[in-house]
Specification:
This protein has 929 residues and is mainly β. Among the domains are: 165-251, Sandwich (Immunoglobulin-like); 567-637; 718-842, TonB-dependent receptor, plug domain (Ferric Hydroxamate Uptake Protein, Chain A, domain 1). The chain is built from eleven helices and 51 strands. The radius of gyration is 33 Å and the shape is globular.
Length: 929
């Protein structure tokens, strides 16, 4: 048994100082000589109050999808200071972003007490095979940047048919004198896992769009192709693809990335507190990744400039680790890393600084305390310098105390009690409130949740009704009010990653760290304090929040919170004066039509509150004087502006479904294909014979815009709907067509300029059935018609409801011509942009109201020969426990024996997070009982 060491005088004095300046209870006790500390605390308190931080998590029903499927989701938004659900916003924005960094779909989801639910149909019209990013954020989150949004990469598989091939590949790379030699083996099989034998194919190695190697081959009896090739080591191997083409069937081809598996690594050294300080104890973290950006475990030694070994290091988890170093001033150090091939890679460490401040935090030594060490070197340790230590999280300051050096050294022991579960930040700031050092640690308080899932039996038969009872308690068995979502999926079709990001890891960990966190769920499934600390040291380097809190003088959010479905704006009068005390009318057109009005205040500001939610609406604003006449005041509406998409959001090239060794994914896609065939067969009246491919028939009903002779149109070249125009934002008609309609351009011919569509002159531009050529000539001359059209092209697309393009054969010109047919919002024909007066039209992103998940109910009389291809067996997004911590729900099993996985995510009323995985077995044996 260890004997407790007596506390030293220095430790006692430091603890007394800490308790004296502990945030909240200590403010009243701070006296005159601590005014700087009181101002610092006041600054952080004010910033926390005015700029509260939110965290966000999205629970999806499954980790991957197929084109044509529906993704179901629930969004949780919490307050970072309390971990409780946030009441700040009334809307959250959900985006599906393609691998070309383009938003494929954007939804506005209403939030009720920090909770939002929705679904998205993955239609073939705008979804192709590839990697996509789910991004979610509130408008308020835009004040803090991209790092605060939710991101999740998902794979959406393209269409599948019975003749598709699967491919498996193995390859090795060897560095040669002339480049890198690759030995590649491919195995081609059918969907039924039978080898593709005796097939003549061409195998191409592509670098981008360029073919760098071609190999004609015939598959072996086992479906195998073996080849090797040598490429220059200057080629970017992360951009290499393999293309397999069937010589007999030009439509049969497989293209997939060739992963770079060379043993070279990239390693970063990240000193604790920000830099290595000479002459004092330092802890240096490191992270090693391979050429694909994934962590790789390493070992090595640290040597000085004389080649003398001063320490060794070994990674703890996913290529991350740390080691101690007491560097000499004016000395350099090198890490010698042993690679998998046995070779040694030398990487220099950052040079030690001769003077400065070093911060070291030990979160591993004690379960109830944190040890903090601050060291100074050179002039930084002089008494004239004043430093403070702030202990904080996002939106909350726990402690603040002055740093008082004794022999250039300070030690403090802080109690962990009172620190919120999650990431806590330590920052050393100088007298100018500049942050000198930062360090993150992870606090694991004893405030966990016990979430129990109980069923009324161990086994179920196919098509059985399954009743689930939920019990949520605290670690002390106190019942907890909770909001929970549950997804039930079939294990044969859906394989979940055991350590993927979940509610707990997102809200407590990844939401505050930078970069890719590999298998974040691992840190909570196998709690490893040392591995967590390495993660904090390597990917938790900085906290911009505290810098903003201490240095910003004008704390004004650029983006307002969507507290409800409100619309606000401002009126500007003559000489930019406020348009005060003017009447503003709002006319809403769409599914619901209504008229509202309000009065602007002395600053010209106005707001319309609690507008009805609608999935299709346009608002027209007009300003009036007190006598009811039109006002010349300029109307400015605070429109929602979507967050920009940074280059870092672009996802790596996906490995397509046919190149993945994933039986669950193939089973899911096969079932999805079978379901489409079944639906197609039913739609055609269960006819016998071959079902042909679907053909789009344009003409079953008019498109909604009249032709040039007032006739109904049943065919078209392009049909741009109001939904498409809403996505376009506030741009001119010309800019929208230029950016979104392929083939639209302008032909300049010196006096006979024309708007063109796919090389064809646009002969007619009609708005509400009337030609834009009705305008008076703009300047006359041979180009006057074009000038009129160019003028109308400056109209905002917010004034338009639909654009249709058609073509026809012109008997007079004996040529094919094009028509541009437009339906305006006013229905008044081609009004010039200047004629719209001071009306302001705003079409917000329509609010999406979630559909109900389909829940089949089977009866004993019709249970025979039920066909059920579901992969998501059940989706229950809104389970609320009662005051006893209990809740119930039920669903029907599918028609086949299987094992189901239940993914449970949720949060409690007092701000605790839950994640749990359960299994349910469906067995024919149970049916026979």
């Amino acid at each position: 048994m260890k004997t407790k060491q007596p506390i030293t005088l220095l430790q006692l004095l430091t603890l007394c100082i800490l308790l004296l300046f502990a945030h909240k209870p200590a403010i009243a006790q701070v006296n005159g000589d601590t005014s700087a500390l009181k101002k610092l605390i006041a600054k952080t308190d004010l910033y926390n109050k005015l700029m509260p931080v939110e965290k966000i998590f999205v629970h999806l029903d499954k980790p991957y999808y197929a084109v044509g499927d529906t993704a179901w989701f629930k969004i949780y938004v919490s307050n970072a200071a309390t971990n409780q659900l946030s009441l700040l916003n009334g809307k959250v924005y959900f985006e599906l972003i393609g691998d070309s960094s383009k938003v494929v779909e954007r939804l506005a989801i209403p939030l009720n007490g920090g909770i939002g639910m929705g679904d998205i149909k993955l239609n073939a019209e705008n979804i192709k095979d590839g990697n996509y990013t789910i991004r979610a954020y509130t408008n308020w989150m835009q004040n803090f940047g991209e790092d605060h949004y939710y991101h999740q990469q998902i794979y959406i598989a393209g269409a599948l048919n019975n003749n598709d091939w699967l491919v498996g590949e193995q390859h090795t790379n060897t560095t040669m004198q002339k480049g890198i030699n690759t030995k590649l083996a491919l195995k081609l099989t059918s969907l039924q896992q039978k080898p593709i034998t005796g097939k003549e194919v061409d195998v191409l190695v592509l670098n981008g769009s360029k073919t760098v190697y071609k190999y004609p081959a015939i598959t072996s009896p086992e479906g195998i192709i073996a080849m090797d090739f040598t490429l220059s080591d200057k080629i970017d191997r992360n951009q290499l693809d393999i293309l397999v083409k069937d010589r007999d069937n030009t439509g049969q081809m497989l293209k997939f990335p060739l992963p770079d598996n060379t043993d070279d690594i990239d390693i970063q050294f990240l000193p604790e507190g920000g830099y290595i300080l000479g002459g004092v104890y330092n802890r240096v973290a490191f992270k090693a990744i391979d050429n694909n950006g994934l962590g790789v475990d390493v070992t090595g030694t640290i040597v000085n400039s004389k080649g003398e070994q001063v320490n060794t290091f070994t990674s703890t988890h996913k290529g991350m680790g740390s080691f101690a170093l007491i560097p000499q001033i004016n000395e350099s150090y090198t890490a010698k890393i042993k690679l998998a091939s046995g070779s040694i890679k030398d990487v220099p460490l950052p040079l030690p600084k001769p003077e400065g401040i070093a911060l070291r935090v030990d979160n591993l030594k004690s379960t109830d305390s944190v040890y903090v060490f601050v060291s100074a070197q050179g002039s930084a340790g002089l008494p004239v310098n004043n430093y403070n230590l702030i202990i904080h999280s996002n939106s909350k300051t726990y402690y603040a105390l002055p740093v008082k050096f004794r022999n250039n050294y300070m030690f403090a022991r802080l109690p962990k009690k009172g620190l919120l579960t999650g990431i806590t930040n330590f920052s050393v700031v100088n007298s100018k409130n500049q942050v000198l050092n930062q360090r993150k640690i992870f606090i694991n308080s004893s405030d966990s949740i016990k979430l129990d899932i109980n069923t009324n039996q161990k086994l179920y038969a196919p098509l059985d009704s399954i009743a689930i009872q939920i019990q949520v308690n605290g670690s002390d068995d106190t019942p907890l009010l909770s909001n929970i979502s549950i997804a039930v999926t079939d294990d044969e079709k859906i394989k979940h990653d055991q350590y993927s990001n979940n509610m707990v890891s997102q809200m407590l960990l990844t939401s505050e760290l930078k970069g890719n966190i590999e298998e974040p769920g691992w840190y909570f499934e196998h709690y490893n304090a040392k591995a967590l600390d390495c993660l904090m040291l390597t990917q938790g380097w900085t906290c911009n929040y505290i810098e903003d809190a201490l240095t910003k003088t004008n704390i004004a959010p650029k983006f307002e919170a969507d507290s409800a479905n409100n619309i606000s704006g401002k009126l500007k009068g003559f000489m930019d004066r406020a348009g005060k005390n003017l009447k503003i009318t709002l006319f809403a057109s769409g599914r619901d039509i209504y008229l509202m009005d309000t009065i602007s205040n002395d600053r010209g500001e106005f707001v319309f509150k609690n507008l009805p939610f609608s999935d299709s609406v346009a608002y027209t604003f007009r300003a009036h004087t007190q006598k009811g006449k039109s006002s010349i005041a300029e109307i400015i509406v605070n429109e929602f502006k979507p967050a920009a998409i940074p280059a870092s959001t672009i996802m790596p090239r996906p490995m397509p479904w046919f190149a993945r060794d994933d039986a669950s994914l193939i089973s899911y896609l096969t079932a999805n294909f079978a379901e489409k065939q079944r639906v197609q067969k039913n739609d055609l009246g269960n006819i016998k014979g071959r079902v042909l491919n679907t053909v789009e028939i344009k003409g079953r009903k008019p498109v909604g815009v009249k032709g040039i002779y007032g006739e109904d149109l049943y065919s078209y070249d392009a049909n741009i709907t109001e939904k498409d125009l809403i996505k376009g934002g506030r741009v001119t008609l010309f800019d929208y067509l230029k950016q979104n309609v392929k083939g639209f351009n302008v032909m300049l011919s010196g006096g006979g300029d024309q708007f063109m569509m796919n090389g064809t002159i646009i002969k007619n531009i009609l708005v509400d059935g009337r030609s834009v050529d009705m305008f008076s000539p703009a300047g006359g001359g041979s180009n006057s018609s074009f000038n009129n059209r160019k003028l109308y092209m400056q109209v905002s697309i917010t004034e338009l409801k639909q654009i249709v393009m058609t073509h026809y054969f012109d008997d007079a010109d004996k040529r094919v011509r094009a028509n541009l047919l437009i339906k305006s919002r006013s229905g008044s024909g081609p009004i010039l942009p200047s004629d719209y007066g001071k009306a302001y039209v705003y079409r917000p992103i329509p609010v999406y109201l979630a559909r109900d998940f389909y829940k089949p109910r089977y009866k004993a009389s019709n249970n025979v020969n039920v066909i059920d291809y579901r992969s998501t067996i059940h989706w229950e997004p809104n389970i609320i426990t009662d005051d006893k911590g209990k809740a119930n729900f039920s669903f029907f099993a599918a028609a086949k024996p299987a094992t189901y996985t239940l993914i449970i995510e949720g949060t409690t009323l007092d701000g605790r997070y839950a994640h749990k995985v359960e299994k349910i077995t469906i067995s024919d044996q149970q049916k026979s009982k």
